[in-house]
Amino acid sequence: MNDLLRRALADARLTEAGVAARLGVDPKTVHRWVAGRVPYPRNRTKVASLVGRDQADLWPQLAMVNVQAEPSVIDILATYPHRWAVPRPVWHQLFQGARDEIGILAYAGLFLAEDMGIMRALTERARDGVCVRILLGDPDGTCVAERGSDEGVGESMAAKIRNALVHYSALRDVDGAEIRLHDTVLYNSIYRADGDLLINPHAYGIAASHAPVLHLRRMEDGDMASTYVESFERVWSTAFTLS
C-alpha cells in the first residue's frame, strides 16, 4: 500500500475514479498505484501535478533514480534458498493482502491446500470479489508423469495432485474461484496476489520444495514480474476447467 499517495489524494479531495478520469486511464490502474505499483514516468508526473506534490514525496523509493534515463525499478523484494524456507506468514500475507486477483500455478500445490489458514484466506478473498484462479497439473497428463519420473517419485506426483484437488474442492462452489488442470512443462511455480509474486524456479531432479523462491513485485509493464504474469496467462488459456 502506498500510504503517501493515498493521503495525498485524500488531501487533494480526489478519488481513484476522479484521478482515472482526469488521466484517461482505467480506475483499476489507479487502484493498483494506491496499492503499491509505481506508475509509468509520464503518469507519475501527472499524478504529482494533480495533488501538488513532488514525485519524491509520493514515491521516495525513486529518489535515487535518474528519471531522465528512466531505468527499470528493482523489483526483487526477497530471495529464499528453498521453498520450505519461506516463512509461513509470508504466504498468508501474500494471499490475505490481495484486492483484485490471486493466481496459483503449480503441479500439486499440496502444501498450500493442506494449510487451513491459507484455504480460509482464499475462500474469503473470493467471496469478497477477488478473482481466484488455481492451475494444477493434470494427474493423467504426460508432463506430470515425466516430472514424477525426473524426481524419482513415480506416480506419487499424480497422487499428490489428486490429494490436493480434494482439499481445493471446497473452493469449487465459491463464486469468483476457478480451478483448471494443465498439461504443460513447468519451469516455475507461480503464486500471485495482485502485483506481488512468489516464483519457485524448478531444477531438474530436485523437488520444488527444495528449489529457491524469489519474491517479486510488479512495478510496470515489461518488468521481471510481468514475464511471469504473462507465463501464467499462457498456461491458463490452454488449461481445461475441472469438471
Protein architecture, described:
The chain has 243 residues and is an alpha+beta fold. The protein has 2 domains: 60 residues, Orthogonal Bundle (434 Repressor (Amino-terminal Domain)), CATH 1.10.260; 166 residues, Endonuclease Chain A (Endonuclease, Chain A). The protein has an 8-stranded mixed beta sheet with strand order 1-7-6-5-2-3-4-8, with helices on both faces. The longest helix is centred in the last third of the chain and has 15 residues. The radius of gyration is 20 Å and the shape is elongated. 33% of the residues are buried. About 4% of the residues have low confidence.
Write the topology of this structure.
Blueprint: H1 3-11, H2 16-23, H3 27-35, H4 41-51, H5 55-58, E1 76-80, H6 88-96, E2 101-105, H7 110-113, H8 116-127, E3 131-137, H9 142-150, H10 156-168, E4 177-182, E5 188-193, E6 196-201, E7 213-217, H11 224-238, E8 240-241
Parallel strand pairs: 2-3, 3-4
Antiparallel strand pairs: 1-7, 2-5, 4-8, 5-6, 6-7
Please outline what is shown here.
The protein has eleven helices and eight strands. With 243 residues, the chain is α+β, with helices and mostly antiparallel strands. It folds into two domains: 3-62, Orthogonal Bundle (434 Repressor (Amino-terminal Domain)); 76-241, Endonuclease, Chain A (2-Layer Sandwich).
